[in-house]
Design brief:
By secondary structure, the chain is of the alpha+beta class. The chain contains 8 helices and 10 strands. The strands form 3 sheets. It has a 4-stranded antiparallel sheet with strand order 1-10-3-6. A 4-stranded antiparallel sheet has the order 2-9-4-5. α4 crosses α5.
Length: 189
């Protein structure tokens, strides 16, 4: 999908002239399969829209254990910078399990555009609100559900993702082992 089409799907940016002006500030970015969009503990100031392809975000602890914390299938907005960085440093790594096509904009430029344009401000605030809702849903899932229920929740919240992402990533996202994931998939197929 092209950026203009993606942006105009939002009721906040349905005015073509406004959407075109907003889109003109975004720059294209391509990632090859296996490449990183961001790396944990590295500088990061951009905002991203994934137009085509897939991304997965993860956090790695000091012992090297990696935990998946997010999935993206284009077209969609990648978690806003404010929710994935601290003091300009990335809190997560974001990798491309497939080739990916994105649009990027400097976060400060987007902030300035939000101040000067109500439609852009409303769009960006809506994106942030959706992301907060997704994070709360996942936290609730991890805190309130057992393994089988987590898999059911995942299938409802992310239909088709089991065919896109590795089961090890999904297991990590759900806070279960890959072996448990395999068993649950066999029972709940």
């Amino acid at each position: 999908m092209d950026l203009r089409t993606f942006l105009t799907q939002s009721p906040d940016l349905s005015d073509i002239a406004c959407a075109d002006e907003f889109a003109s500030h975004w720059k294209p970015k391509r990632l090859k399969k296996g490449a990183h969009l961001a790396r944990q503990e590295q500088p990061e100031t951009d905002e991203f829209i994934l137009l085509e392809g897939c991304l997965a975000s993860s956090i790695c602890d000091k012992d090297g254990k990696e935990v998946c914390v997010g999935f993206y299938v284009g077209p969609c907005v990648v978690t806003p910078n404010i929710a994935r960085t601290r003091d300009g440093m990335s809190l997560v790594s974001i990798a491309a399990p497939t080739d990916a096509s994105l649009a990027r904009i400097d976060g400060n430029l987007l902030s300035n555009m939000m101040i000067s344009s109500e439609p852009v401000r409303n769009w960006a605030n809506g994106v942030l609100q959706q992301e907060l809702s997704r994070k709360v849903d996942r936290e609730w899932c991890l805190a309130a559900l057992g393994g089988a229920e987590r898999l059911i929740w995942f299938r409802q919240a992310f239909p088709g993702y089991e065919d896109i992402f590795t089961h090890a990533l999904i297991a990590s996202f759900l806070g279960i082992t890959p072996v448990t994931m395999s068993r649950l998939r066999a029972i709940n197929s």
